[in-house]
Amino acid sequence: DAKTTQPNSMESNEEEPVHLPCNHSTISGTDYIHWYRQLPSQGPEYVIHGLTSNVNNRMASLAIAEDRKSSTLILHRATLRDAAVYYCILRAYGANSKLTFGKGITLSVRP
Amino acid sequence: EAGVAQSPRYKIIEKRQSVAFWCNPISGHATLYWYQQILGQGPKLLIQFQNNGVVDDSQLPKDRFSAERLKGVDSTLKIQPAKLEDSAVYLCASSSGTAGTYEQYFGPGTRLTVT
Fold first, then answer.
1. pLDDT tens string B76-106
2. Of A27, A35, A43, whose CA–CA distance to A59 is shortest?
């Protein structure tokens, strides 16, 4: 599975935008970029995924670089509830493709 | 829509004892996964079921771990005998498809402590 690189941690202020970076220089043409997050003492939660174009949903936006070697998860207005570990994962297109989690980035939100 | 249910939420056992975890996936989800998450690490896939058949169990320590999904709905994961290094959170997830575009829905997990 192609690997991703994320910073270990990031801090943000409540009600400000947050940009979480992810590098994936060995991405293949059929790999989807997935983001999951894990709140304390909970299971992971799907956030968003994309292939080439930028994506928006009610939780976040995903900005994908033109060469697809990096991406950024954007939380438009951080809340205390957004404090979590965020995982950037490459997942192959085909059947039975795996979600291979790394260590993720720990986001702290200051009130 | 009800989420993925798991029980128990917490379990403490001594090494060499056996333990079982139960998972009920989201209704209609044919694909079920068990993950192990050791403290400070991301979840690691142990086994994937499609209906009642095993798709991938390459990372399941088969000498002590077993899992079944007899009727293609709920599933149990068993450890016998447990070792200290099995202390972890065991997560169950389900999905309506297996391709890379499908999201997985996770349960709250079972925290196992082996003493």
1. 999 999 999 999 999 999 999 988 899 999 9
2. A35
